[in-house]
């Protein structure tokens, strides 16, 4: 691995991405890890601005996330939710008490005119997170899920309807007008990152909004360092979330090859290295035909050691 | 007392007003009590719209208020506040978990386009409150306290600075453009109320915004039924809150007579009956000189029976 001045930009959605970010944070020196977080599934609920992916990454890196549940905080209490239920209020989005404090603080600060970037950095500081976490944009981008139940805001599809509707595609409202977060732009323009790691997040609703934003993927492709993507599909299944179900509904092959083909078609020349699990080793040759190097390794992250090992492996590929 | 079709409009601020409203609700038939609540101390905090006076009246009538504390809910928990503190967030306004649920629900519904009137009625229904409670307006009015520390938003003066600054006066931002709540206007125009009771609330910051709003006091003066005011100053002191301190700083006599003079000067001909405590009986003659009938009774409400007795007494005066 190159010297300790190596700096990595990771692109992350929620749970799966956060796991690899934690591994990267463990093995990289402080301040060497920059994370661009998807914000297209942010939404307004009960007057609050909620940023699920930012919070999942923050809580995971701070060591306070509820790992069994996959969202929210460990040891959470539910006093407010119980009171909302007794008021017959909307409670399909489960807001824990400590989690609510994050949303309240952020919403109040946004109302006072602070940018999401500033607030994300400040929240990281208050939670003791040393990695640099950025929202992909300070402008609002909102995923719309085109489904057999009509167009649904992302959280309505994902949480309220538990991914049950069949999807036909996605669009990102506000994307055309949104600007890529300024620090991410500066890191890229100044060639200040040694490489990019696309975390094993959902390609369609977590990674796509970041890549499609404001020329982001073209900017990443122009970097001197390589772009590595970790495949979120292992053995034809998603480790977590609806990626596999979405691929089937979009008539894509539900395999690591299907994911690689998706990246190659939509972002040609972007991904230099594609990381797949041992169980998908037989797909390596076909993926190489797409012009990507393939790294076969253990990509399922259950333990902290798994996360660190995958992070080390990715860094080895990226930094050489 | 007149027949059971008698209908009363009460004007109320927070704690003191809510006590008399509870007494009135106990002794009047359901649906005979209409309450216009001050909203000029409503404010935005952590992105939430908070309506302290509406909530104090609602919680009091629903029997869930914290009477010892004077605000908030009985048996409240503080999980969110503790988490906000650990985030070093603003916690000068003490938000309990169950109370927060009210603010969240309301803020979400306001964002969805519901009026504060509709939400207040719905919240009353969900809490089992049968009295009709109206915000004084669906438009935003905000008390500004002119003080020796400059102009302060009301809750900053009241809660954050604990009424310590010396006041020089008050203004009500938005008052000139705000409309009196439509049901209150209709009740008055249709002479559908048998009388008005101005609760023993702060004359300057709780009652004044209601009376000064959109010709309200002139509308009340034109009613066929009488207007009765219960004096919030007893024996030269306020039962609760900064009314006495404010009077001293405004160079008004800190007495029941001072309050009566204030009403007579600013709302001439409005108050027909002025209710004072036994301890202020010697002031009755001077108050009568202002053109008001004076009723001397026990106005300090400690027990539920105290509240009911004062309510009965007021109704007797108003309904004859």
Topology:
2 copies of one chain form a homodimer.
Chain A: E1 8-12, H1 15-27, E2 33-37, E3 43-45, E4 48-50, H2 52-62, H3 79-86, H4 97-111, H5 116-126, E5 132-135, E6 142-147, E7 150-153, H6 154-160, E8 167-173, H7 182-189, E9 195-198, H8 203-211, H9 216-221, E10 227-230, E11 233-234, E12 237-238, H10 243-249, H11 256-266, E13 273-277, H12 284-288, E14 293-297, H13 304-319
Parallel strand pairs in A: 1-2, 1-9, 2-5, 9-10, 10-13, 13-14
Antiparallel strand pairs in A: 3-4, 6-7, 6-8, 11-12
Pfam family, one (chains A, B): CofD
Protein name (chains A, B): 2-phospho-L-lactate transferase
Keywords (chains A, B): Magnesium, Transferase
Could you characterize the architecture of this molecule?
Chain A has 320 residues and is of the alpha/beta class. Chain A has one domain: 3-Layer(aba) Sandwich (Rossmann fold). The first copy, chain A, contains 13 helices and 14 strands. Chain A has helices at 15-27, 52-62, 79-86, 97-111, 116-126, 154-160, 182-189, 203-211, 216-221, 243-249, 256-266, 284-288, 304-319, and strands at 8-12, 33-37, 43-45, 48-50, 132-135, 142-147, 150-153, 167-173, 195-198, 227-230, 233-234, 237-238, 273-277, 293-297. The A-B interface holds A 44-49, 77, 79-81, 83-84, 86-90, 97-98, 100-102, 104-105, 107-108, 110-111, 123, 126 and B 44-49, 77, 79-81, 83-84, 86-90, 97-98, 100-102, 104-105, 107-108, 110-111, 123, 126.
């Amino acid at each position: 691995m190159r010297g300790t001045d190596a700096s990595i930009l990771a692109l992350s959605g929620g749970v799966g991405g956060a796991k690899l970010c934690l591994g990267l944070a463990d093995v990289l020196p402080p301040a060497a890890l920059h994370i661009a977080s998807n914000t297209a599934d942010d939404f307004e609920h009960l007057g609050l601005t909620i940023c699920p992916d930012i919070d999942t990454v923050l809580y995971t890196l701070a060591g306070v996330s509820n790992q069994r549940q996959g969202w929210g905080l460990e040891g959470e209490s539910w006093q407010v939710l119980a009171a909302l239920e007794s008021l017959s209020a909307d409670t399909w989005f489960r807001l824990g008490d400590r989690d609510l404090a994050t949303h309240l603080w952020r919403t109040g600060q946004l109302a006072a005119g602070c940018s999401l970037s500033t607030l994300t950095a400040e929240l990281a500081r208050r939670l003791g997170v040393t990695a640099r976490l950025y929202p992909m944009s300070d402008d609002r981008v909102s995923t719309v899920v085109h489904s057999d139940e009509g167009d649904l805001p992302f959280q309505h599809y994902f949480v309220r309807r538990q991914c049950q509707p069949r999807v036909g595609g996605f669009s990102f409202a506000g994307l055309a007008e949104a600007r890529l977060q300024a620090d991410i732009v500066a890191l890229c323009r100044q060639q200040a990152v040694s490489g990019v790691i696309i975390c094993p997040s959902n390609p369609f609703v977590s990674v796509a909004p970041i890549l499609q934003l404001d020329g982001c993927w073209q900017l990443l492709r122009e970097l001197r360092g390589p772009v590595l993507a970790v495949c979120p599909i292992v053995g034809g299944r998603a480790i977590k979330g609806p990626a596999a179900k979405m691929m089937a509904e979009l008539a894509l092959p539900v395999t690591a090859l299907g994911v690689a083909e998706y990246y190659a078609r939509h972002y040609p020349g972007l991904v230099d290295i594609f990381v797949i699990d041992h169980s998908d080793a037989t797909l390596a040759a076909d993926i190489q035909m797409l012009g990507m190097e393939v790294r076969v390794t253990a990509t399922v992250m259950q333990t902290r050691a798994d996360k660190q090992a995958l992070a080390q492996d990715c860094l080895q590929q990226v930094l050489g």
